[in-house]
Amino acid sequence: MKRTLGTCYYPEHWPQEIWEADARRMVETGLTWVRIGEFAWSRLEPSPEDLQFDWLDRAIETLGQAGLKVVLCTPTATPPRWMIDRHPDMIAVESSGQPRKFGSRRHYCFSHQGYQRESDRITSLIAERYGDNPHVAAWQTDNEYGCHDTTLSYSQAARKAFRTWLADRYRTIDALNRAWGNVFWSMDYASFDQIDLPNLTVTEANPSHTLAFRRFSSDQVAAFNRRQVDIIRAHSNAPVSHNYMGRVTDFDHFRVGDDLDIATWDSYPLGFLEDRVGATDAHKRAFTRQGDPDFQAFHHDLYRAVGKGRWWVMEQQPGPVNWAPYNPAPLPGMMRLWAWEAYAHGAEAVCYFRWRQAPFAQEQMHAGMLRPDNADAPALIEARQVADELRDAPDVAAPRAPVALIFDYDADFAWATQPHGKDLSYFQLVFDTYRALRKLGLSVDILRGETRDFSGYKIIAAPGLIYMPQDLKNELAEADAHVVLGPRTAARNADMVIPVPLPPDMPGLEVTVSRVESLRPDMPMPLKGGGAFTGYREELEGAADIVLELDDGQPAALRSGHLTYVGGWPDAIALKRVYSDLCRTAGIATVDLEDGVRCRDTGGLRIWTNYGAEAADTPAGRIEGAGVLFEKT
Ligand code: GAL
């Protein structure tokens, strides 16, 4: 497959006279794709039912005539001001009970039926008008579901929909009371209509209640998206996508992805490093102009799974951004490296955000491929280089990796509901595991929690799956691969209640977690032979073989056959011990990579990236700082 480049463009921000020159310059740079329209509602419908689509007709025609393919978006992330007068209660409500205001974006609640109908209406108008337009080669629904904490809304509309969702799920109120343990603190309900949203309670709400609300909220995002997809598909054969984000886990992206053709995501490595990667200050200093060496790759692998193999970077950082605590400029070469890293993980396209820096409004400090004065910015120069390289590059594929890592959004909802210790997060546990695997030079496939066919993998890492349906336990117990479980595996049932027999209660694994504790982050529990558990630890009983021991001789990890249970949150050294040992047993070659150096096998070609600022050695040769190395394998 030919890998491509693109950009995000806002024709409504610029005079029509310059559209043609912009389009020509995009093509000259080597771009294929231009994404438009996601925030344009106020210019498409300035007042109710006053439709002004002529300018969009012209924009699509101009871009298409220049040879570009258009990704057309629905504009539902930014309903115009008049919409709020029409539906004053469509605004999302914070957990404090405070409604959020108009004046930025994403000011809607997924559960509001009036807004759902408005979304259907504008989507239909756009899909009918452009569904068979030859220049519209792909679609994007909305923009970044969940951005700015907008998945959970505590509105009246959400409360009403939540009650219906609960009634569908539990059928009778007695069943719900029993499942949640509502006898505790006299929380029994007599009907579904008495159940409120789990905010503003005196102390914490029942975790079963909170988890149900998180699952409901996730389903609302999927349902909102599905309505748009159904409408678009009725008018167009072009693939439909949505642009997800980095470390946003409050809706199940796999469920949304089930309804889409392509998963895309918005990659801002420098912003994420400061804002979303759990890392030390020293690490942040070392990578401040490059980004974390594993964070982008993790999401590439995650969204490849969400997209069932088809995925893009829809927004690639083009220079300093405006929204992180600090906003440095990337090292020269990084914008090229990020693109190649995405292709190495199977991206079909990488689109830089945005074409020209806007001198006005919220993102005036956000770089583009062009400066506000129209001069080339560094991103344009590096994109041109990537375009030149792509012309002669061999094809890169994403073949099956030897190692699989399960990522389950529902587990993340449960950990968020009950972390048990400050800052303990499922995402971080999975990400720490991913980093350890990549530091060993491994390519990794991420699998959704609903996966039941594990054939072909030699190692399956499944940390932190707090609820495990019996069929998943059975499949893992019967898998040919080595399976690594724990901590918190199967520690709750589907309703967030501790099961008896005690966890993990896994066929073939002679381990019982008898007690759990969370730890101060500055008081790790050292392991014999190196490494430690930090933040969280479990006491283990059972006849399985001891793999790791705490300094005081208590078991830390146990193994029965191909099943290993790790009873705590391993630090980097402990993770390396567990996985390098298993790789040896499984016959997988490993290396010990320098901090910023990583690689990915693409079938015939191994692509090395160096996030370090200085040159570094790899088994394939020396690689410059912020550089990429192609090794034939
Ligand atoms: C993304 C968003 C874009 C733009 C960008 C700035 O989250 O989709 O519209 O705001 O961030 O970095």
Report on the architecture of this protein.
With 633 residues, the chain is an alpha/beta fold. The chain folds into 4 domains: 4-153 and 221-392, Glycosidases (TIM Barrel); 160-208, no CATH class; 403-586, Class I glutamine amidotransferase (GATase) domain (Rossmann fold), CATH 3.40.50.880; 597-632, no CATH class. It has 18 helices and 24 strands. The protein has an 8-stranded parallel barrel, surrounded by 5 helices. Strands 10-9-11-12-18-17-16 form a 7-stranded mixed beta sheet. Strands 13, 14, 15 and 19 form a 4-stranded antiparallel beta sheet that branches. Strand 16 and strand 17 (555-560) form a beta hairpin. The longest helix is centred in the middle third of the chain and has 29 residues, at 207-235. It is globular and about 75 Å long. The two termini are 19 Å apart. The protein binds beta-D-galactopyranose. Beta-D-galactopyranose (GAL) binds next to loops.
